[in-house]
């Protein structure tokens, strides 16, 4: 199975609302590895690695996020594959 990595930049009301925790939970549920990290500008960076369908599903989920969040935009870019152990909250 082909494994890919994609980086997402999620903006809106995405910090202080449990966004990283819920993202990690969704990623694990989909069998992905990577991380969710708060950025200084108020956005959240998400790295998701695994099956193309799993990464695509997480990308669709990120456009809405958890109920506590208000996502304004979700920009994704392909990145070189890298192995992560688990899905971490940074």
TrEMBL record:
Belongs to the acylphosphatase family. The keyword Ribosomal protein does not apply. This is acylphosphatase. It comes from Vibrio inusitatus NBRC 102082. Keywords: Hydrolase. It is an enzyme of class 3 (hydrolase). GO terms for molecular function: acylphosphatase activity. It catalyses: an acyl phosphate + H2O = a carboxylate + phosphate + H(+). PROSITE patterns: ACYLPHOSPHATASE_2, ACYLPHOSPHATASE_3. InterPro entries: Acylphosphatase, Acylphosphatase-like_dom, Acylphosphatase-like_dom_sf, Acylphosphatase_CS. Its EC number is 3.6.1.7. The active site is at 20, 38. The gene is acyP. Residues 5-90 form the Acylphosphatase-like domain. Coiled coil: none annotated.
